[in-house]
Design a protein that fits this description.
Blueprint lengths: L1 H22 L18 E2 L1 H7 L5 E5 L4 H6 L6 E2 L2 H4 L14 H10 L7 E5 L5 H12 L6 E4 L2 H7 L29 H7 L5 E5 L3 H5 L15 E2 L18 H11 L6 E5 L4 H12 L11 H5 L3
Parallel strand pairs: 1-5, 2-3, 2-4, 4-5, 6-7, 6-8
Length: about 300
């Protein structure tokens, strides 16, 4: 009987603690994410390796050196210099993205179909990979693209298999571009955003570009009302591999800037390469309304 009473007392104590804990939980904590809401678009080396086994997978190496690709790359990968080949040489705006017809031809040349799952990597900081990620989502391939967290440096750090022989050409793909107008904005919309409390212009250039001491166009400075955080601040910089910071750290960075999920976010840099990196990070963090300013400071600073 004494043993039964002790057991009953212990159970009541545990239940009381649970009740108190539940009462201390605020409504804002309920359902709050504890990891990247769109974690499926950022893969570890191990997850990336598993995804290679899907016959629909196309692996694209976006490193800037074709010669390094020939020496060593992830098995089955094709090479695409996104920071160069996505630039429209006929555009009056420096490094403006190619149109849908050109992009469609490029992706078909890489063997891409509309049902392909595309895995992208670059040297490690995800600049090249994110630029292609943004292009693919802008041209309608959302839901089928993922990046390798830490890029090729992470692949080597995990001691994964590499290939180094000459790559055989991929069979022609059947990819079709479908422009998503809600994934981009122009200078008119950027100027309107200055007076719209539901829109945030997000400048991810260096502090020197933002304050006008590093001038890369006719004028230096920044768009009135813009908030600033350099693109690389979302990456871990205390190791050999530039992984993305944990969810809670990036969430805190955005909260300090007033970047919340109920607002439309317009990231940009000078040519929208770094802006594309911010686009990817915002998507990773669960922001649905993100419209990069493709013209970026290359257009705005020259107007």
């Amino acid at each position: 009987m004494l043993h039964t009473n002790k057991l009953l007392t212990s159970l009541l104590f545990v239940l009381a603690l649970a009740f108190i804990s539940a009462g201390c939980t605020s409504e804002s904590d309920i359902g709050a994410p504890t990891t990247y809401p769109n974690a499926d678009i950022l893969l570890s080396a191990e997850e990336f390796a598993v995804a290679l086994n899907d016959e629909r997978t196309i692996v694209i190496d976006t490193r800037t050196s074709d010669s390094l690709f020939q020496v060593s790359h992830i098995p089955g990968a094709v090479h695409f210099h996104s920071r160069r080949d996505l630039n429209d040489p006929d555009s009056p705006i420096e490094f403006f993205m190619v149109g849908p017809e050109v992009f469609e031809s490029q992706m078909r040349g890489l063997g891409v179909h509309n049902d392909s799952r595309i895995l992208i990597y670059d040297e490690g900081n995800s600049l090249g990979a994110a630029r292609l990620f943004y292009a693919l989502e802008y041209f309608g391939h959302e839901g089928h693209v993922a990046l390798l967290n830490g890029g090729y440096l992470a692949w080597l750090d995990a001691e994964m298999e590499v290939a180094g022989h000459e790559v055989m050409p991929m069979p022609e793909g059947t990819y079709t571009s479908r422009v998503q107008a809600d994934r981009v904005c122009d200078v008119r919309q950027v100027m309107e955003a200055a007076n719209n409390p539901n829109m945030i212009v997000f400048d991810v250039r260096s502090p020197e570009e933002f304050d006008g001491t590093d001038v890369r166009a006719e004028r230096g400075g920044h768009i009135p009302g813009a908030v600033h955080l350099e693109w690389s601040e979302v990456l871990i910089d205390d190791g050999d591999v530039p992984f993305f910071k944990p969810f809670e750290e990036i969430e805190a960075l955005y909260a300090d800037l007033g970047i919340t999920r109920d607002k439309e976010v317009i990231p940009h840099c000078h040519t929208n390469v770094r802006g594309s990196h911010a686009y990817f990070t915002l998507r990773l963090m669960g922001y649905d309304s993100v419209r990069p300013y493709e013209g970026s400071w290359s257009e705005y600073g020259n107007m």
